[in-house]
Amino acid sequence: MSLPLADLPPWSAAPEAPAAPAARVTDGLTADIAVVGAGLAGLATAHHLLDRDPAADVAVIDARHPAAGASGRGTGLLGPRVGPPIDVAVRRFGPSVARAAHLASEAAVAGVVELCSTVGAAAGLRPGGQIVATRTAPGLASLARQDAAYRSLGLTVPVLSAAEIRRRVGVPYHAGLLYPGAATLDPAALTRALAAACAAKGARFHGDSPLLGLRPGDGRTPTELRFAEGTLRARKVVLAVNADAGRLGLPVGTVLPLRVHALATAPLPPELRAALGGESGTALVDSAAPAPYFRLTPEGRLVLGGGRVSHAPLPEEEDAPSRDAARRLLEERLRRLHPGLAEVPVAYRWSGRIGMTADGLPVVGRVGGHPDIWYIGGCCGHGLAMSAAHGRYVASHLTGPAPAGSRLPWHRDRAPRLPLGSRPARALLRAYLRQLEREAHRTP
């Protein structure tokens, strides 16, 4: 059964952390450093900038408010996954890059755990690991290839049998890979706490101010950011705008905006909570993207995401029939996940946008060759850990020489470009997304 509900995640109702008054950008404002985007990437950038230079005048600007976008609408999976599966990464980028990327993603998870403690958002953090599992023969073959690749690179990612998975999460899968350092958390609580920490350090906040465009500086004049009611000029700019890169015309390659969906149940009865891994705190991700994944919250709700994916060029536009079909698919999966979930009420359902690149790697680099304008985005659905790490990374480059050996494997100015301007290209994209949906339907 389902209940009347809002199109929001359960953590959206939490009180907002105190922050500086978020006035709109009006008239002509100035700052030393402007950070556009008050999600995890932008706020982590501001946080680390002010750690390094407490006297800096840092302005954080958002189209709405902190945690309003993907950072507040995620499902809270904190795992060390970045880029394509490790065996594909080895073939595509070479062993050294694949290994460095995985180690960087593990470090990113540890960085978020540390950040939760630093800003007072550790209450919702649940360690327990993350299992990437399969119920299909092709999935078993894929996990076997990944296991071989991890071992060849000297990386420890244990293999779990069906019985071991069942003991942890109570759901039948054939086999899986365990990422033991992973965890789950409340993404909106972390984002709001980070906003409060930035405000306490002196960051200025401007809300309800969508960026309309920018005019880069030339070394002598600052970069000018244009908004509906005014401008803001800054010596250095960080564009943590993820899937809005295309709308703004940023020359960072193609960061494809895709809409994904999730739901959350009412709190489960204690016995069902225990059966679904309440004691272990383990999250489970089906290896066949975009097949569903699930985790339990501290209060015992089951959060389920995955399934239908759609192209979403504008955040406010959502096709109602597509949305309703995605929700039906997720609720069907919920009912089939475990017999005890057959009558559990669905209490929340929502959607959000992610930024996807053609090669699966994020984009963190300078915009158009300008040394003082940086872009962060394209985490391909794995942004919870990586966004915070990217903020630290960009702050280190903006405030002085970056530490030796710290260069990210995906430090680059642009992703591969996809020619989406033509009608045939858009038709191919729709066909690809429908194929993903069919594969999600076929997954048991």
Written description of the protein model:
- With 444 residues, this protein is α+β, with helices and mostly antiparallel strands.
- The protein has one domain: 3-Layer(bba) Sandwich (FAD/NAD(P)-binding domain), CATH 3.50.50.
- 34% of the residues lie in helices and 22% in strands.
- The protein is built from 11 helices and 20 strands.
- The strands form 3 sheets. Strands 5, 6, 7, 13, 14, 15, 16, 17 and 18 form a 9-stranded mixed sheet that branches. Strands 1, 2, 9, 10, 11, 12, 19 and 20 form an 8-stranded mixed sheet that branches.
- A hairpin with a 6-residue loop joins β14 and β15.
- The radius of gyration is 21 Å and the shape is globular.
- About 1% of the residues have low confidence.
The general outline is: globular
CATH level-two architecture: 3-Layer(bba) Sandwich
Q: What is the percent of helical residues? A: 25-40%
Beta-strand percentage range:
15-25%
For the record, the count of structural domains works out to 1
- What are the low-pLDDT stretches, counting only 5+ consecutive residues below 50? 15-20
Oligomer: single chain
CATH homologous superfamily assignment: FAD/NAD(P)-binding domain
**Which class do the helix and strand fractions yield?**
alpha+beta
Question: What is the CA-CA span between the terminal residues?
Answer: 21 Å
Q: What integer is the average pLDDT?
A: 89
User: Counting H and I runs of at least 4 residues, what is the number of helices?
Assistant: 11
Determine the CATH topology. FAD/NAD(P)-binding domain
Query: Which value, in Å, is the CA radius of gyration?
Result: 21 Å
Pfam families: DAO
Domain FAD dependent oxidoreductase: 32-395
Protein name: FAD-binding oxidoreductase
Organism: Streptomyces lonarensis
